[in-house]
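Hey, resending since the last one bounced:
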Amino acid sequence: MAFLKIQGVTKNYEGVKALDRVSFEVKQGTIKGLMGPNGAGKSTLFHLISGIEKPDLGKIFFKEKEITSLKPHEISLMGIGRTFQTLQVWGNMTVVENVMTAMHSRLRGGVLSSGLWLPWIKREEDRAMKEAKEILEFLGLFGRWKWFAGQLSYSEQRILEIGRALGTRPELLLLDEPAAGLTYGEAKDLSERLDQLRKKGITILLIEHHMGMMMEIADEIVVLSNGILIAEGTPEQIRTHPRVIEAYLKRGRQGCSESEN
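The structure tokens again:
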């Protein structure tokens, strides 16, 4: 059974096709890589899966239920969490508060009960705090839980974004270039943590330009180019796939040409 199923998804922006009839599946308990040159449509696909945008054609299924028309908070409650290519942390909140905000939709307290600070609300907040600290400990940020998020380094803020996504208790985690800006050692540490998440049963769909990391950690990889799916297979198959090689070489030649001009 496909845990996530993308079926013939198409997305146009003012006549330009960002995605053109893209179809693939993600198996439960695996890490699926999503590769492609800049502008291939990778982040657009994440927007469609998480409900931020809607496809013009095609359908998206999660655990055999269609989620194509659902709103972002409805999709989150179903068990899909995500990070963004650009940082989305709140710098004027503490590190632990950033993670706790992601848990808000799961907390039972309303405005009135929270304002009255009823005992059961306090217990719920304490449980959320404990869970948030456990997430930060797993990610290696526990020593900074009282810091304001804006005090963290860029790489630490990217890791915090993953913590916020984990705060939603996702079954499927969409990670958009989590290793961007990380050193080799930090990227290797992140790979190990993602592998631990997979072993805990969290399925991951990963966009990453860090080729070594992708080839090492992904069970399967799907490759987009100009919005079209051009290859799908194991890392070994993708590494030597002629259409993948041609797509990256072509983009590299275009970049050189543009810089010369």
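The two ends are 50 Å apart (CA to CA).

Sorry for the duplicate.
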